[in-house]
Design brief:
Length: about 170
């Protein structure tokens, strides 16, 4: 992959890989710390912990692929950022996942229409049957910026590969 990237792009890819790997590790650390604070571990709590650890491990995996100069790391990292874009709470169900940092712009429809801003570090929220009156829709600006950056790098590599194949065919 490096043969298709400029020096600043290589630095950006390595930085994004390091960011994702360290963010996932921090998320795992926070999850383990929260687990140590839990007095009773029920089946649902265990399932949530396994889910959280899986999401954060996926972040580490995506970062490791980028650090090791693997082209598929761009797609895996895009998937990783995609699952961090939304913050949803509606009809008692909620979802929010952040590995790293997030700046959410939330539209809160709970009591009246309001726009709220929220900054998060590693966070995982998945709930059902809680807080029925809460209605929030939000987008993570950090994840969107990272997605656009990863996509730009991926498209650039794809174009350079196609150009190389076309030139070798001549």
């Amino acid at each position: 992959m490096e043969e298709f990237l400029s020096a600043p792009e290589i630095k950006r890819v390595k930085f994004l890989g390091l960011y994702q790997a360290l963010s996932g590790a921090l998320g795992i650390f926070i999850t383990i710390w929260a687990l140590a604070q839990t007095e009773i571990i029920t089946g649902i709590v265990l399932a949530m912990i396994i889910t959280m650890l899986s999401f954060y491990s996926f972040s580490i995996y995506a970062g490791k692929l980028l650090i090791n100069d693997r082209y598929e790391g761009l797609l895996i990292s895009m998937i990783n950022q995609s699952i961090q874009v939304l913050n949803l709470s509606f009809a008692g169900m909620s979802y929010k996942f952040v590995s790293g940092s997030a700046f959410f712009i939330n539209i809160d429809l709970t009591k009246s229409l309001s726009i709220k801003f929220e900054f998060n570090f590693p966070t995982f929220l998945l709930s059902y049957n809680r807080n029925y009156e809460l209605s929030v829709f939000g987008v993570n600006i950090v994840a969107i910026i990272l997605l656009l950056s990863l996509n730009k790098i991926r498209e650039g590599i794809k174009e350079k590969r196609q150009l190389q194949v076309a030139q070798s065919a001549l």
